[in-house]
Specification:
- The protein is of the alpha/beta class.
- The chain has a single domain, classed as Rossmann fold.
- Helices cover about 35% and strands about 25% of the residues.
- It contains seven helices and twelve strands.
- It has helices spanning about 30-40, 50, 105-110, 130-135, 135-140, 160-170, 200-230; strands at about 1-5, 5-10, 20-25, 40-45, 60-65, 65-70, 75-80, 95-105, 115-120, 145-150, 175-180, 190-195.
- It has a seven-stranded mixed sheet with strand order 5-4-3-9-10-12-11, sandwiched between helices. Strands 6-8-7 form a three-stranded mixed sheet. A two-stranded antiparallel sheet has the order 1-2.
- Strand 4, helix 2 and strand 5 form a beta-alpha-beta unit.
- The protein is globular, with a radius of gyration of 18 Å.
């Protein structure tokens, strides 16, 4: 399995002619790495004009300056001091309000001639439930994998909504896998379309239970390694 910018997915289902759509592209870390590692064509969607300006510098990345939402038009968008936390919801008094253009994802796919999506990455700070609810089942049948950061871990959405979305995707033939530790909810979540990706039950169960736990052990080891290095570093 592969992990890029905190999102886990099956890289073996991607190749040079694959299409990746990056919702919440920010400064382009995910899209640029995907284009470089897999040779994919990446559509990087980012509403913040300051972050968007940097997306034009990456080969294989198509930057689009708007926000994907459940409606087309304009919406208030709150730019946080940490640009990765910018969203449709004001979470701090220091957030700067701007107005951004919005579009539905199915409309964007039609406009850019995107007939299928091999990997859809969603990191849109709490707007993910409204986005997913706005799209018909037929749209998701053309999507291979969805690497999504659900924001139940910080209270922007509820775990009940996440469970409802999981039930929907499982009914559409997707495997549902959470790679986050329990206290982080569904921060690193993956849906795999079994009708487009040849993923068997054994590999699914391995990813869901063994890979997740191994990465948890690795996180603990890195944390304790950092503490040990700090404790043993010579004082100046």
């Amino acid at each position: 399995m592969d992990r890029v910018s905190g999102h886990t997915f099956f890289g073996r289902f991607l190749r040079e002619n694959s299409v990746v759509v990056d919702l919440g592209a920010n400064m382009g870390a995910f899209s640029s790495q995907m284009a470089r590692k897999f040779g994919c064509l990446c559509f990087a969607i980012e509403p913040n004009p300051e972050c968007f300006a940097g997306l034009k510098n990456y080969e294989g990345v198509v930057p689009i300056n708007l926000a994907i939402a459940d409606r087309e038009g304009e919406m208030r968008f709150y730019v946080a001091n940490n640009s990765e936390a910018s969203s449709f919801v004001r979470t701090s008094q220091s957030d700067r309000e701007i107005v951004v253009r919005t579009m539905r994802l199915d409309a964007l796919a039609q406009r850019h001639g995107i007939g299928h999506i091999d990997l859809l990455k969603i990191d849109i700070e709490g707007a993910e439930i409204a986005l997913l609810d706005s799209l018909p089942d037929v749209f998701f049948r053309r999507v291979g994998q969805i690497a999504i950061e659900f924001h139940d871990f910080c209270g922007l959405i509820s775990r009940e909504d996440v469970a409802r979305v999981e039930r929907r995707f499982e009914s559409l033939g997707f495997f549902s896998i959470t790679f986050s530790k329990a206290s982080h909810g569904h921060e690193d979540h993956l849906f795999v379309n079994r009708n487009r990706c040849s993923l068997g039950h054994v590999e699914y169960l391995t990813a869901r239970y063994i890979t997740r736990n191994l990465w948890g052990i690795a996180r603990i080891a890195r944390r304790w390694g950092g503490r040990w290095a700090a404790a043993t570093a010579p004082s100046s």
